[in-house]
Amino acid sequence: MTFLRFTTVGAAFTLAALTGTGTAHADAPTAAPSASAASASAVPAFTDGYGLTVVPGATEVHSPTDFTITVTTKQLSGKHKIRILLPAGYDAAPDRRWPVTYFLHGGGGTVDDVAAAPALHSDSMITVVPDGGLKGWYADWLMQNTAEGAANWETFHLDQVVPFIDAGLRTRTDRAHRAVVGLSMGGYGSLHYAEGRPDLFGHVAALSGGIDFGMPQIRAAVLATELNLTGAWCAVSSSSSSSGSGQCTGYGPYVDSDAIFGSPYPVFNADRVWKAVDPAAPANLAKLSGTGITVYTGNNDIIDVHTEAASKTVKARLDQLGIPSRLVNYGNGASLAPSCNGGHNYGCWAPAFTDYVPRLEAAFAAAR
């Protein structure tokens, strides 16, 4: 069975978005970091540890409460950024510890995408935005000898970044005061991480997420990013360049179609890894018992019509398991915000976070 054959079954929506028949998303705000005269000495100092080495002189200070550090790790090739947003009162309250939210960006995105969702810069919590790779899919790749080199994204985030942040900042380290949220590719990552490490995360939100690996359309989107095909999700889930362009090329080198999760084909259990990490699998959803769960989706473009289907499946299965959750299906966007057209873009995701963050803040406060 060839990849082309697979895509004709599962990726028609992807190809349509790239040939101009899908919805364009040029209205996504640009997330360029603002210049600041502040120096790196004005932000907290981080010490090497947990397998991370801080790159000297590479800290970017966007404001006194918004900065980016750069690290290296044996788990990943190259240098990787971690953007950190502190509450305004962080320095003024040296004895206070703060809840933490991890924001996972989408395919083709960067840590700077967080600037397109202002609600995530809260005065009630710390927000951490680790690099997720242009097509890292928040996974430890099966193949480590591709053009990407070392690609253990899940290990980087959960075993290195989380304890590194707890060591370097005044955080609340219990699960009731730690959340993971993400959109598109990061929506998969957030739900997958919350299921895999319920000891770490007491709250999770997935926005327009690829959260049902049982859907061939979502598997096709992952493969499109691996093969540098014109796959829609990697092109429209960034807040900056290429939004809506429908070009996966430029989002990292070509890698084998089996590089991340192995074979996608449901033949003789060849797709066992896909099934094992599927966020919508009942066995994985059952691990979210006691976790605050929120899922957002629209349904008004060639992409979010599929994230809607995935979100409804997740909600239905959680209901069957008796696990409370909140699904916000804003349809064409009219019920959410004037900026939202119901599509796969920050015009919808920014107001979704505006809706979600106060609820998360309240949950953090109630968990005292």
Radius of gyration: 19 Å
Q: Looking at the chains present, what oligomeric state does this protein adopt?
A: single chain
Report the span from N to C terminus: 55 Å
Secondary-structure element series: HHEEEEEEHEHEHHHHEHEH
The residue fraction in helices comes out at 25-40%
Biggest β-sheet: count, sense, barrel? Answer: 10 strands, mixed
**What is the count of β-strands?**
10
Q: How much strand content do the residues show? A: 15-25%
Structural class: alpha/beta
- Helix run count: 10
Poorly predicted runs of 5 or more residues? 1-38, 241-246
Mean pLDDT: 87
| Structural shape | globular
Ordered list of secondary-structure elements with their pairings:
Elements: H1 3-10, H2 12-18, E1 53-54, E2 60-63, E3 66-73, E4 76-85, E5 100-104, E6 126-130, H3 153-168, E7 178-183, H4 185-196, E8 203-207, H5 216-226, H6 232-236, H7 272-276, H8 282-285, E9 292-298, H9 304-321, E10 326-331, H10 346-366
Parallel strand pairs: 5-6, 5-7, 7-8, 8-9, 9-10
Antiparallel strand pairs: 1-3, 2-3, 3-4, 4-6
Helix pairs in contact: 1-5
